[in-house]
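Q: Hi! First time doing this. I have a protein sequence and I read that you can turn it into a structure. Is that right? Here it is:
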Amino acid sequence: MIKVLVVDDSVVVRRLIVDSLTGAPDIEVVGTAANGLLAQAKIDQLKPDVVTMDIEMPQMDGIAAVRELRKRHKHLPVIMFSTLSAAGASATLEALSAGATDYVTKPSNVGSIAESIAAVREQLVPKIHALAGRRPPPGPPARPGPPPGRPGLSPPPAGRPGGPVPGRPGLAPARPDRPAPAGPAARRPGPPVRVDILAIGCSTGGPDALTKVLQALPADLPVPVVVTQHMPPVFTRMFAERLDRSTQLHVVEATDGMELTAGWAYIAPGESHLVLHRRGTATLTQLSGAPPENSCRPAVDVMFRSVAALYGASAYATVLTGMGQDGRGGAKVLRDAGAEILAQDEATSVVWGMPGAVVSAGLADEILPLDRIATFLVNRVKSGRSAAVAR
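A: Yes, that's right. Below is the predicted 3D structure, encoded as structure tokens:
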């Protein structure tokens, strides 16, 4: 059984979460706590596999509780319980930065308690199953590497072992239901193709992973970046603003009609797919309210297909950590169009669902740990442009 500790100062919300988990397969609520301070003692006493954590609580709020918890429990999954508001989004992003693993949003505009319970269960149970039981590996595994000689690949930093990124919370072997292991796809012949756009998709664990990648990209990156991160409205805007402050790139939440510009990153807004279209020589963003795909809107598959249609082989796609398999179908379309695809490796993914699905389908040209992805992308963009000039 997966043991869950529920932390919330509201008796009503604690009962809502407990009721939403009652009867869920393989899940048992082993205790509750009314604030972050009490939670620290309950964690030591009950040794839960997963903690759900409110943000605003007396004595010790959720953000402070996560920071304190990470001093002693680096790999215990913590799911924040947030509101769909600007304040809630900002606090949730701060909690994720402090070491929380994921989040769910409190139900709003529901007509009954039963509907609230169902809404929480629908969000929370899959995340608990995906994150539960994650513990540090017994020792650093051998670092998976791409085939020798791949263009633009920098050697690993001296003295850095393989395996999880040191100090990064919530990383451990993936769940037993992960995709079957596989290696990189067969290397393509010929010199590297010029890259004109980077496309990135991510979900669970994505805010932290995406932040690390974008922070390592230079201000003079000669291509634009388009991103789909599974997030609700308001959250995507706050996330884009946070990234714009913390990276060298210009980062915005995409709106209709933005012209893609080198050195800029465009985040798909919550509840809208991000697609691209051409007007003359310009590439513009377009938001779509088409039905969700893979239960997601925005969906990585939609963005990847649009990128493939406009850029073909000159696109480079990256699939970072995330639940499910969104991105696999779009990666197939990209690869058929001649584009290359990079997948984050299992050891550094919070959940190896999305990148694992791409790898198991034989679509990944590269499988890299998180700390090597940005350097690889920069080198790959440079090598493709150098090769194009040489030709």
